[in-house]
Each structure stands twice: as C-alpha cells, then as structure tokens.
Amino acid sequence: MTWIRTIPPSEADECLKQALEGQKALYPKEYATPVHPADGGGAQIVASHSLIPQALYHAFATFGSLMSPELPLARRQHEMIATMVSVTNRCVY
C-alpha cells in the first residue's frame, strides 16, 4: 500500500479547515460518519488530499453538489449513479 503524508484535522491550518468544513457541508447527513476513518477522524480518501486544500475542496465538493436534493433526480437515483460509477471504476468507496 502506498503511504501518503496527510495533515490531521488537529494540525490543519485555516485554509485546510475551511476546505474540510466547506466540502463536508455539501454532503447528505448520512455521510457524516466515515466507513474507514483516518487517524484523527475524517475519511481516509479526504485526508489523502490534505496537502492541497483547494484540490481537496473542489474534488469532494463536486460530489456533494451532485447529491443536492435541489436537483431533479431523487436521492436514490443519485446513489445508483454513484454506485455504478464506483463499480465501473473498480472503486470501493
């Protein structure tokens, strides 16, 4: 397994804190608890982007925006699309 240096939330500067909170606010409440938490909390995949806060925000805010209840698809349809994309990409998250 590849090791990627990450910055835990407890050591985050203001830019990283804003990126983490900003992207998290866009996600449905069911996503609040990570399935595979990183050391110090949060999701491992999010933590792997902690060295570049702007990239972290944009990468994860995209998915959060695509899950918006204001879009014309139902939540279950958004989840089915996300599942099929993960399956197609052989991704476990």
Structural features:
93 residues, mainly alpha, 4 helices, 46% helix, globular
Give a structural overview.
The protein is an all-alpha fold. It has one domain. Helix 1 runs parallel beside helix 3. 12% of the residues are buried.
By DSSP (H or I, 4+ residues per run), the number of helices equals 4
Counting structural domains, the number is 1
Largest sheet, strands/sense/barrel? none
Oligomer: single chain
- How large is the radius of gyration? 14 Å
Q: Could you tell me the strand content as a percent range?
A: under 5%
Poorly predicted runs are none
What order do the helices and strands follow? HHHH
Q: Mean pLDDT score, rounded? A: 88
List how many beta strands DSSP finds. 0
Look at the helices and sheets and give the structural class: mainly alpha
State the distance separating the first and last CA atoms.
16 Å
Q: Sum up the overall morphology in one term.
A: globular
Topology of this protein?
Layout: H1 14-24, H2 44-47, H3 53-66, H4 75-88
Helix pairs in contact: 1-3
Could you write a compact summary of the structure shown?
This protein has one domain (9-88).
